[in-house]
Amino acid sequence: MQELWVLPAWDLTAAAVEVWSCDGETWRSPAMCQVLAADFQPYIPGLYVLIGAGALMMLIGLFGCCGAARESQCLIGAFFACLLVIFAAEVTAGAVSFLGKAEAVKKLKNTYHEAYKAYQKNGSKNTTLSGLHKMAKCCGTEDPASITVLKPLCSEKQQEYKNCLVEIEKTLSYYFHIVGILAIATAGITIFGMIFSMVLCCAIRNSRDML
User: Fold this and answer.
1) Selected residue with higher pLDDT from 66 and 97
2) Which InterPro entries does this entry report, sorted A to Z (predicted)?
3) Which string of DSSP letters, residue by residue, matches 36-69?
4) Is the pLDDT of residue 209 over 80?
């Protein structure tokens, strides 16, 4: 029974990390919200699936512990069924994170290029460029000379040339890997919970048969 407490403890940690990756300081600026809404709408639901699965598994884990304490085959069977559904959702979200990374990077690079061209034409304040510079801690395109044009939109800490197209890819890869690895790790813990619940259910049945 004690092993079932691993599930709510792990998923509390997993949900916290997922919220951090989704709602960190990097993503809270209005500019970044606008960019993410336009370019990342197909991928954001996967992150919320993991957050919901983590929160739901905390509750289900507690019910599983109650079922084990009461030696209820019905509760443990329901616990297994819920874990099976959550496992499928976690694997799907993890696969989307890994497979969708290249397309997401491409979209954000295109957004940066378009914003840079627009800024070159009119020279007005560009919140998209400012947000991307802050997110990737960079300043400039693949052309080092672009630093002279973009310097007003770069933070005071980043006034030297640093290719944003490269840094954007590094930053997104970091976040996508966190989400994907966390999904796979959580799925592994879910498998452990399913196996343990079935073993426990069989043990309860055998003990009752012996009586």
Assistant:
1) 66
2) Tetraspanin/Peripherin (IPR018499), Tetraspanin_CS (IPR018503), Tetraspanin_EC2_sf (IPR008952)
3) HHHHSTTTHHHHHHHHHHHHHHHHHHHHHHHHHH
4) no
CA distance 90 to 184: 7
| Whether the model pTM is above 0.85 | no
Non-local (6+) Cβ contacts of 107 within 8 A are 39, 40
What is the total residue count of the chain? 211
CA angle 162–167–170, rounded 5-degree value: 155
Domain ranges of the chain: 2-210
CB of 151 within 8 A of CB of 139? yes
Give 36's contacts (C-beta < 8 A, 6+ positions apart): 27, 44
In this prediction, residues 4-9 reach a mean pLDDT of 45
Place of tokens 């069989």: 202
Q: Which amino acid is at 75?
A: L
Q: Tokens for 175?
A: 């976040």
Q: How far apart are CA 129 and CA 111, in angstroms?
A: 9
Cα dihedral 104, 110, 116, 122 sign: negative
